[in-house]
Amino acid sequence: MSELALSRKSKGFGWWLDRSGTIMAFVFMIVIFGILSPYFLQPDNVVNIMIQVSPLLVTALGIVFVNMAGESDLSLGGVLGLGATLYCGFLKSGMHPAASLAAVIGICVLFGILNGFLVAYLRLSSFIVTTAVMFIAMGLEKSYNNGFSIWIRDDRVTVFANGSFLGIPNLVLLAAIIYLLTHLLLHMTRFGVHTQSVGESFETATLMGIAVKRLKFSSFVIASAFYALGGIMYAMRSSGAIIYSGQKVLLPALAVTFVARTVLGAKRPNTFGIIIGALLLGVINNAFTLMGAEFYLIPIAQGIVLVAAAAIATINKRDIQQEKLD
Asked: What is the fold, at CATH topology level, of the domain defined by 3-325?
């Protein structure tokens, strides 16, 4: 069978499902939840969903940098929680919010430097290294807060967290700005193109003269800065830093990056898919809460959605392989 005939024939149900299945499922969920809960589609609740997913969106964007470079990063499970705790602790000590923000980002970036050096230059496993760094950060978090949550009492921070600009909540606006800058950096600059090249083929990128080690190193450093921002935004949204909050974010953030690969048939890390993935998980959490469902049903529903996403991601591949056999 010719390639042209194969291309035409393969663009069947599997082809379209591969490219639009995740978005169609997302829209279907919105319709169903809108029917089951009359409050779900109300403007106030839509805004609430956007506020809820903003920290998750920023956190997941940090993972994209590392994934695009062909590595994994689990350190956010500790770095994010430590960043949130330090930010609240610095505020409690009387430090200015801006100074606290800068200090937290600087400290969290140190973990990214450690990750990047061990993975990019010493060529250690990113899975093992970042898991170890996660535990180190978790230990430092507990040693700092003694196992207790730290609450925000600074009026300047609470006013910002609960405020808005031109009707757009500040946390949503902040997440939107960070997303836009990230999208431009990763998809419309030489840095982004080279980073994707490294993730697709280490050997080819090296032959092309790309500074592979430096890009991998940079991806971990940038990711840690995003984890710091995500942790601070979670603290602002919750009015404080809850002990080991990073652990609670780790799996949802990783899930978002996986769902992103299934959007529009991307099959690779991308920023647009991160929006769909974050909103998808946020919609499930919000809708089940509105309907008064038992709390344990939320992760079950999210797990089912991930399995469906995995199935969608493989349907077109199986169909094309079958066409080749025929």
From this structure: ABC transporter involved in vitamin B12 uptake, BtuC (1.10.3470)
